[in-house]
C-alpha cells in the first residue's frame, strides 16, 4: 500500500506512536495520532510530532471510521478493545508499528523474541553486527522505535530487532532473515488471556519466513523444540544440556557450534556474562550471527568483551582481585535469584530497599552456599535479616547508607570473591529508580583503587 495522501490513524501516543506518526509524515501520509486518554497534554504531543499530524484525544468518534485508509497500532494498545473491533468490522487494514517500519525499511532484519533473555540477546547480537557491518540499527522492544530508524536505512543495513508479543500480534508481511525464539514462560496473560494466545503471538516472528531464512530455537524448551518441526525456515537449535548434531551447545563449559563441522567458540569462563541463562542468550546470538555469515573470529572477539545489558548482572570492574556486578534491576526476589544463581565466586551481596510487601524466603534459600556476607540497607533490612536468620543464615551486616554498603563490601571482600548489587527490592526511598541506583554503584566502584 502506497501511503502518500492516505489518511492513517496511529492508535497510541507512546514513543512508538510518535515515531510512527513522524514516519507517516515523511512518506506523505495524512496522519492522525489518537489516544483515549484525554488528560494527556495535547500541545506537548503536537510539538513532539510536528504540525503535519493531527492529534485527537479522548472518546473515539465513529465518524473517523469513514475517513480512514489504515490504522497503525502502537504495541501498548490491546487489540481486543471495542473500538479496535469496530475498525475491523469496517474492513480497515490494521498494521502494527513494526509492520509499518518493515514496509518502509531496507536491508535485512534479525529478530529476537522470547519471555526471558531477549534484551540481552538483542544487545549482544547488535554489538556483533556492528563489528561486522557499517550500517546497523538495534530497534524494537529494547527501547528504540523501529519506525524512528527506517528513513536512514539502506540496502546494506541490518536491523537487529527485539520483538515483544505485543508487537508481533499485529504483523502482516514482516519477515526476518534470521529469527529466534528463546523460551516460553507465562507472561502478559492479562493482555493475551491464554498461554496459547501468548505463544502464538510470539510464533508470528517466523510465520512469513521461507526455506531461505533461519530460525534459532531453544531445544530445551518443549514448545520451541516442537515449533521447530512446523516452521518453513531452516532451524538451528541451541542447548545448555546436550550436544546437538546441527546447532550450538554447551559441553564441559565449552560453547560448541556444530553445523556440519564442530567449532569451539570459547569457554564460558572467557565471558563476562554469568549464569546458564546468559550462556543460552550468548549461544542464540552466536547462532544468529553465524548463519547470517559473520566470521567466527569477529563473533568470538565481541562475545568475550560484552559486559551485559546495563543493570542486569552487569560486570562493572575488577578491583584488587574482587569482581563487582551491578544487578540493580533485581527489584524483586524472583529477579534477584537469577543474580545469585549466576555467581561463580564467593559473593558479598548488597540487598534491601523499598518494601513492596515481598517475602524473601526463596531468595535466601537460593544462596546455596554462595553468599559469604549479606549487607542490608533500606526499609526492608530488618525484615530480610529476620528471614535470613530463620533460614539459618547469620552472616549479616546492617548499614544505613548505600555508600556504607559498598564500602563495607570493598573493605571485607578478598581476592577471588565478588560483590553483587542485587537488592530484591525497589529503589524508592533512596533513589528515583533502579537505573540511578545502578549508576551510583558503578560510580563508587570505578572510584576504587585497582
Task: Describe the fold and architecture.
The chain is α/β, with parallel strands linked by helices and 450 residues long. It has three domains: 7-92, Rossmann fold (3-Layer(aba) Sandwich); 99-305, 3-Layer(aba) Sandwich (UDP-N-acetylmuramoyl-L-alanine:D-glutamate ligase), CATH 3.40.1190; 314-447, Protein-Tyrosine Phosphatase, Chain A (Alpha-Beta Complex), CATH 3.90.190.20. 34% of the residues lie in helices and 22% in strands. The protein has 17 helices and 20 strands. The strands form three sheets. It has a nine-stranded mixed sheet. Strand 2, helix 2 (42-49) and strand 3 form a beta-alpha-beta unit. Helix 5 runs parallel beside helix 11, helix 5 (118-132) packs across helix 12 and helix 11 (276-292) runs antiparallel to helix 12. The termini are far apart. The model has no long low-confidence stretch (mean pLDDT 94).
Helix and strand layout, with pairings?
Blueprint: E1 7-11, H1 15-26, E2 30-35, H2 42-49, E3 53-57, E4 70-73, H3 82-89, E5 94-96, H4 97-104, E6 108-113, H5 118-132, E7 136-140, H6 146-149, E8 158-162, H7 165-168, E9 178-181, H8 189-192, H9 195-203, E10 214-218, H10 222-227, E11 234-239, E12 246-251, E13 254-259, E14 262-267, H11 276-292, H12 296-305, E15 314-319, E16 322-326, H13 333-342, E17 347-351, H14 361-365, E18 371-376, H15 381-390, E19 396-398, H16 402-412, E20 418-421, H17 434-447
Parallel strand pairs: 1-2, 1-4, 2-3, 4-5, 6-8, 6-9, 7-8, 9-10, 10-11, 11-12, 16-20, 17-18, 17-20, 18-19
Antiparallel strand pairs: 12-13, 13-14, 15-16
Amino acid at each position: 500500500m502506497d501511503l502518500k495522501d492516505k489518511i492513517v490513524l496511529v492508535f497510541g501516543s507512546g514513543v512508538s506512536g510518535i515515531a510512527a506518526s513522524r514516519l507517516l509524515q515523511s512518506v506523505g501520509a495524512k496522519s492522525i495520532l489518537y489516544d483515549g486518554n484525554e488528560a494527556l497534554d495535547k500541545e506537548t504531543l503536537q510539538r513532539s510530532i510536528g504540525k503535519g499530524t493531527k492529534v485527537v484525544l479522548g472518546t473515539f468518534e465513529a465518524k473517523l471510521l469513514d475517513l480512514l485508509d489504515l490504522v497503525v497500532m502502537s504495541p501498548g494498545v490491546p487489540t481486543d478493545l471495542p473500538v479496535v473491533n469496530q475498525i475491523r468490522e469496517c474492513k480497515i487494514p490494521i498494521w502494527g508499528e513494526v509492520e509499518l517500519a518493515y514496509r518502509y525499511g531496507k536491508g535485512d532484519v534479525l529478530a529476537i523474541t522470547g519471555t526471558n533473555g531477549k534484551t540481552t540477546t538483542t544487545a549482544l547480537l547488535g554489538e556483533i553486527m556492528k563489528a561486522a557491518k557499517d550500517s546497523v540499527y538495534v530497534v524494537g522492544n529494547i527501547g528504540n522505535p523501529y519506525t524512528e530508524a527506517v528513513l536512514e536505512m539502506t540496502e546494506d543495513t541490518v536491523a537487529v530487532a527485539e520483538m515483544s508479543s505485543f508487537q508481533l500480534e499485529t504483523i502482516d508481511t514482516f519477515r526476518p532473515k534470521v529469527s529466534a525464539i528463546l523460551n516460553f514462560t507465562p507472561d502478559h496473560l492479562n493482555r493475551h488471556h491464554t498461554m496459547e494466545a501468548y505463544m502464538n503471538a510470539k510464533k508470528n516472528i517466523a510465520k512469513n519466513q521461507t526455506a531461505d531464512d533461519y530460525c534459532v530455537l531453544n531445544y530445551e524448551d518443549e514448545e520451541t523444540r516442537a515449533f521447530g518441526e512446523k516452521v518453513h525456515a531452516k532451524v538451528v537449535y541451541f542447548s545448555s544440556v546436550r550436544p546437538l548434531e546441527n546447532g550450538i551447545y554447551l559441553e564441559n563449559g565449552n560453547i560448541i557450534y556444530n553445523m556440519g563441522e564442530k567449532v569451539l567458540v570459547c569457554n564460558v569462563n572467557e565471558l563476562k556474562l554469568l549464569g546458564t541463562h546468559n550462556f543460552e542468550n550468548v549461544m542464540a546470538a552466536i547462532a544468529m550471527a553465524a548463519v547470517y555469515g559473520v566470521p567466527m573470529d569477529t563473533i568470538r572477539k565481541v562475545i568475550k568483551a560484552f559486559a551485559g545489558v546495563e543493570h542486569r548482572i552487569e560486570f562493572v570492574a575488577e578491583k584488587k582481585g574482587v569482581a563487582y556486578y551491578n544487578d540493580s534491576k533485581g527489584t524483586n526476589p524472583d529477579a534477584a535469584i537469577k543474580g545469585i544463581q549466576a555467581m561463580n565466586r564467593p559473593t558479598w551481596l548488597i540487598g534491601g530497599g523499598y518494601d513492596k510487601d515481598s517475602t524473601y524466603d526463596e531468595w535466601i534459600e537460593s544462596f546455596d552456599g554462595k553468599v559469604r556476607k549479606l549487607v542490608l540497607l533500606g526499609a526492608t533490612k530488618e525484615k530480610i535479616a529476620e528471614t535470613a536468620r530463620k533460614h539459618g543464615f547469620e552472616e549479616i551486616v546492617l548499614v544505613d547508607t548505600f555508600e556504607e554498603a559498598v564500602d563495607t563490601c570493598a573493605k571485607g571482600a578478598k581476592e577471588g570473591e565478588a560483590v553483587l548489587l542485587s537488592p530484591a527490592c525497589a529503589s524508592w526511598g533512596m533513589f528515583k529508580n533502579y537505573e540511578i541506583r545502578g549508576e551510583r554503584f558503578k560510580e563508587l566502584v570505578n572510584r576504587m583503587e585497582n
